[in-house]
Amino acid sequence: MHLIFLSRSFTLIFISLITPSPTGKRRHVFSFKFRSDVCVCVILTTLKPFESVSVARKMNNRAGSFLWNLRQFSTLVPTSRTVRLYPSGFCRPKMVYSNWNPRKLLSNFDNRMQSFVRYLFQDALIFKSGGDGFQTKSISTATVLTVDRLLCPRRLSFNSKHFVSDNGLKKNFHHEPSNEDVLTKRTKPTPINCRKLSQECNSLSDVLDIFSKAPTFPSSNYFSAMWTIAKRMSDDQKRFEKQLMFNHPVFSQLCEQIMREAKIMHYDNLLFSLHAMVKLEIPQNTLLVQTLLRVVQMKALKELDQFSVLNSQHMFAVLAAMNHRSIILLNECSKIVTSNIHGCPFKILISILQSCRDLQYFNIDLFKGIADYVAATFDIWKLKKVLFLLILFENFGFRPVSLMDLFMKKATDEPGFLNVKSLVSILHVYSSLNHFHKCWTHEFLEVMASALTGSLHHISAENLLNAVCSFCLMNHFPLAPINQLLQKDIIHDLLTSGDVERNVHKLHVLAACLKLDAPCHRDTHLVLPQLPSMPLHPHAKVAEVLSSLLGEGCFSRSVWLPHNYYIDFEIRMDANRSQVLPFSDVDVVTSSATNIQRVAVLCVPRSMYCLDSTHPRGFLAMKMRHLKVMGFHVILVNNWEMEKLEMKDAVTFLKTKIYSPEALSTADIDLQSIC
């Protein structure tokens, strides 16, 4: 038994269509009750004894008669317009192309049938008897007459033998194609090849015009063709054509179409269309790009186990082009790349690292895998290529020790490849990562200084400053480059042109190094502008721990020192670091006092270390070196580690850092004797 709630107007149509089956086959009893504008239609069906009906008839009798009558009614429904439900709740007619059919999946009968079902049962509640209760299903789709499969929010799929409903149930259904069906099938447009489309069209608007005449599946071909055409244009023409594309009357329709197709589109087509959209400069925060982006990801994750090595290698560039930082995809692709690193072209390795840099994606296993592979095959690579790799590693703060040692030895033995650009880059990488080798460092620095001296006649002021500053970070002071840099005209050039703020900062570094590290240049005095003041944020938890451990008045916060050095906390102790002395602003104690030890507590963020290590980077190493010259004992407190510690553990940690081992052991002995 079926209960169907219909409006009064639909009931009149419904009554005129439902007719009894041939005599003796089956009998229908109908009952209609009207309440206001709603009619309740009760359909009672009496079947022949179950055993006397053949298997085929059992399957067909349930739906055959009713669906046959529905098909007769579908011929009365106009097929040239469709109605679309807008968010405001109003329906507005929209032209569609009834001869369009994606990949020939549906016949014309499919379109007519599903359209009529929606037309008839929109906003209806259908009750089906099932055991002791009723199952309800609400249908709230708008009136849709003749539309393609992708325009329908819910799909009915037909073939010649089966009917598949939305809930996945398959029912036998036989349909004999009519002459109209055959004609429709013959007139379906053939899918357009992207290459052929780009050859036939001369502008982006031409592609959209072809789409407006006969849309075909997949719509990604239109975007790919437009990007192919745009690549042949000059920058000015490309800019003009893109504006025409955005203003074209069917461009929004194409965008809506490809969003509907996204879930059933082939993976390659999705990627090609997304790539074309990015290249055509469609804003990435639009619904169009974000929808395709999610579908490409929600699909990539399902097919991760089927990714080839090449797929994984190129996935980095794809995500970087979309500026989409999908950690899951990047992690899985990194595993595949790392496990298949041997034989990977150098160009691909560079592309992967550039994409990781753009996405701010740090994967230590991936970086180590690439560095170890290049180190193992070091002899087959040109030094310029390896240098490019090291520059990218420095951007991450990653220090590949073995590879940097090999490069240092090779550059020392074969300095012929060095020019000004490569020289400045090498010095920057090694000083930034604070990399030294116990045997080769001095010889390496001498070779670099000699190469820089030979280039002084044509080097720019900024390159000279960068190179000398890198030498200073590594505590090496070549005489000729420094003397040329200190000339008044070069200093004036650096303070008045280029990146002045950056130049001033590096000149202050140079001045501090000359005063504290280079005895022969201690009398040098540079008149430099003051550096901009930085916001002071002393670490709150460390301050709380010091207050608990030492008491207020035994340490000072946010201390500025000569040469623009800043320390978070200063503690004064005796020479053996066994006792903390009271701190007073009036009582200024200098480092010359033999019985006083000044302690500098530095709260260090993770970025001050090399990636995945506690090896200090160049500026932190230089600061520690200079603080020791000024008489400080330096204590490093890692911010991220301190945040993880409980208060009791944090007090114990700082206590072991502040007091000397001898003082701690003596305190333990005294404590045991008292007990």
What does this molecule look like?
By secondary structure, the protein is α+β, with helices and mostly antiparallel strands. Among the domains are: about 415-530; about 540-660, no CATH class. It has 29 helices and 14 strands. The strands form 4 sheets. A 5-stranded antiparallel beta sheet has the order 2-3-1-6-7. A 4-stranded mixed beta sheet has the order 11-12-13-14, with helices on both faces. Strand 9 (about 160-165) and strand 10 form a beta hairpin. Helix 6 (about 195-200) crosses helix 8, helix 7 (about 205-215) packs antiparallel against helix 8 and helix 15 (about 345-360) packs parallel to helix 17. The longest helix is centred in the last third of the chain and has 17 residues, at about 500-515. It starts with a strand and ends with a helix.
Percent helix range: 40-55%
User: How would you write the strand order of the largest sheet?
Assistant: 2-3-1-6-7
Average per-residue pLDDT, rounded, comes to: 75
Low-confidence stretches: 1-53, 58-188, 669-675
Oligomer: single chain
Q: What is the overall number of helices?
A: 29
Give the N-terminus to C-terminus distance in angstroms: 91 Å
SS-based class: alpha+beta
Count of beta strands: 14
Principal-axes shape call: globular
Largest sheet: 5 strands, antiparallel
In what range is the share of β-strand residues? 5-15%
Computed over alpha carbons, the radius of gyration is 39 Å
